[in-house]
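queue> holo job accepted (S-adenosylmethionine)
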Amino acid sequence: MRKKNIELYKCPLTDDNLDIDEIVEEIDNKIISGILRSRQTGKRYFISNGVVDFITPEQEIKGAAFARKYYSEIAKTYDENVHITFELYNENESDIRNRMIDLLELKPNYKVLEVSAGTGKDSEIIASRLNKDGGLWLLDISPDMLSFNVERLKNVGVPTEHVVASACSIPFNDNTFDALYCFAGVGHFPDLPKGLKEMARVVKPGGKVVFCEKNVPEWLRDTEYGKICINNNPMFADPVPLKHIPVEARNVGVRWINGNVHYVFDYTVDIEEPKGNFDMEIPGPRGGTFNTRYYGKLEGVSVETKKLAIEAQKYSGKSMTKWLDEIIKREAEEIIRNGTK
Ligand SMILES: C[S@@+](CC[C@H](N)C(=O)[O-])C[C@H]1O[C@@H](n2cnc3c(N)ncnc32)[C@H](O)[C@@H]1O
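queue> job finished
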C-alpha cells in the first residue's frame, strides 16, 4: 500500500484511525511488508507482498471463515472455469462484464473500490477505464483469490491497492470512493444488510454503487429453466435484497441480465433518506399537507360524529383538514384559557 493512503483506512472493528507501525520493506513509497496499528486499541494489521490483511479472528467467527476456505481452495482453477457462469446462458462474458461496469459511469480520475474482486476479471476492465490520476482498490476476503488479481493488474496504468477484508467491515473511512462495484459477492456476505450499508458508507455523495448476484426472478420461478438453475444452486432462489438497499440510495435501477438469472442493482449515493416538500397544501376536500396528515393524527371519533363532520365540512367551504384544525384549535385554546380539564 502507498504510505500516503494511510489516511483513507480505518480499523474495521473499532473505526479507529490507523498509523503505520513498522515498515520492513518499502519500494517507491509503497509498503511491501510492514504493520499498521490502530491508534486507540493498538490492534495490528500485517502487510505482506504489498497487501494489507484486515481479517481478524472475530470476523472469521462471523462467517468469513467458510468463504475464505472455499475460495482459497478454488483460487487456482477459478479463471479456467468462470466462463461457464456466462456460457451456460449463451452469453458473452466480456459483454456482460462491460455492461455492468458501464453502469458505474466512470471518469478516468475516479477512485474506485471493487468489493469481492476475486482474481480480477472485472478489475482489469475497470482499470482500463481509469488513468494515473484515478485509483483502484481491490478488496476480497480470500488472499489466494486476490494474489491472482495482484498479478493480473501489475502492469495497468492506474494506481492499484489490494486489501484482504470482509465486505461487512470495510476498512475505509466514510465517503472515500467515487464508485463501488461488486460482482457475485453479496450472496456470500455473512451479514447482507451490513455489507450493503458498508458499501454505501464508503462512497461519496453523488457516487455510484453497482452490484450483481445470481437470482431467478419471480416470473421465471415456475419455468423448467428457473427450476433447473435453482436445482443446481439454491442461491438462485435467495431473495432480491430490496429491503436492504440503504436509505441513502437514489435513482435505484435493477435489471436481470446474464440469462435473466442475475440481478444488477445500480444507484447513486446521497447523504440520508429522501426529503419531500411535505408542507405543501394539497387541494381538494380532504386538504392538509403530507405532514399534517402524518403528524397531526388524533383519536378516532364515533361513526355518527364522523358523518356529521363530513356533512358540516361541505357547508364550511373549507377542506376537512382546515375546518377541523380551526375548530379543534379554537376549542382547545378556550379550554386551556379557562383552566378546565
Ligand atoms: C464468485 S467470486 C466472484 C469474483 C469476481 N468478482 C469475479 O467476477 O469473478 C466471489 C468472491 O467473493 C469473495 N467473498 C466472499 N465472501 C466475501 C466477503 N464477506 N467479503 C468480501 N469478499 C468476499 C470470494 O473470496 C470470491 O473472491
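queue> The chain has a mean pLDDT of 95.
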